[in-house]
Amino acid sequence: MLAADIRLLGISIGGIALAILLIARLGLHPFLGLLTGALVTGLAAQLPPDKLAQTIEKGFGDILRGTGMVVALGLGLGAMLQISGGARALAKAVLDRTGDRYATLGGLAAALLIGMPLFFETGTVLLLPIIAAGMADRAQSGGLRLRVMLSTLAGLSVLHALMPPHPGPLIAVRELGADPARTMLLGLIAAIPTALIAGPLLARITTRGVVTENLPLIEPDEGLATPAWRALIVLLLPVGLIAAGALMRMGGGELPPAIALVSDPVVALLIANGAGLALLLGPRMADRTLQDMIWREAMLPAGGILLGIGAGGALKQVLVDIGLPALFARLAQANFVGPVVMAWLVAAAIRVATGSATVATITASAIMAGVVGGHQIDPSLIVMAIGAGSVFFSHVNDPGFWLVKAYLGTSTRDTFRTWSMLESAISVVGLGCVLLLAQVV
Predict the structure, then answer these.
(1) pLDDT tens for residues 323-335?
(2) Around Cβ 104, how many Cβ atoms within 10 Å?
(3) Angle at 66 between CA 64 and CA 72, to 5 degrees
(4) Residues near 271 by beta carbon (within 8 Å), at least 6 away in sequence
(5) At a CB cut-off of 8 Å and minimum separation 6, what does 415 contact?
(6) How far is CA 18 from each of CA 9, 23, 50, 357, 386, rounded to the nearest angstrom?
(7) From the CB of residue 171, how many other CB atoms can be counted at a distance below 10 Å?
């Protein structure tokens, strides 16, 4: 490693540490803390001032372009489900069947079933408010509520890391020439034990002593009593639309324009919002007071969530532009470990540095494409190793960190203790499963 590489690594670590210090120790809002970290990092790396400003704006805008509308539409749909009573009815129907004893497994199962075609952010904004609504009336629900929500997040994150047709694994499948069906099968074999360990089992340890603020829930309107089946239809509608597009993409060829449109997460959620107005509100869908209540309740938490996500994207973009992914790419050429572990290390390093699982997956896939050809190794295993590495240790430069923090109601410190540990467990256990599969397939 050259002196310039060591300097770059030190600047990157310092910038991330500064952001953490400003937020966790000094109490700055994540928006200000992350932007300050991005600015100081860029200046220390000697990015030209005009270039630095453009980089921060680009990172902020790019992440909100992909995530902002999903979060806003998801919050709107969540508000409809809560005001109509549909969220509470649906969650009660599920939790009455699982009971408190198996509630964490119920949350995990729901995430694995419903989250298969969904982006992580989409699954989060759809499922977590329903879980929160279901736990609201349960005795001593604080710790149990957090465990159930973490188990749900474990299911969503495991799918995001290991299973096509999620975007990251699908990118790696194409880059490395792996077989999609085989990758899905092996990914499923690895996903179930990984989710169980990182979700229900780990949550029993990491949630001890954690104090949460309950997600502000909206009391259902007394004139609405939406049955659970209607809420389920509204919830599954965007899932089905997105799944249709994902499955057709895996079959190869171009999607019909209509399918490409409605399977886009933003459009699918917009359609679900329209269906929600009809199915959840019924004759009162044109009630101006009810409409104002829905969007007021949806947008109140949206501001803080979106500002934190955007600032995390700004810090990520600065780290990318100063050359951190390129540094890890050069280090990977040393070929000092086996291909599976190397794929994991490269993806994990880029993930921690940039905060983006997608950047980690794309970069690591491009690096490993040249490595796979020289080893007798199943490309599907490399895809899974990259996916496992790409979710390692979510922290302040990951926009998902702030989205999850808002829904869990935890402090920054306790979000590290719960969510960051969950992601790290998925990454490490996932790697272990890939190494075991490498011995038998």
Answers:
(1) 877 777 677 666 6
(2) 24
(3) 65
(4) 237, 238, 241, 262
(5) 401, 404, 405, 408
(6) 14, 9, 22, 22, 28
(7) 19
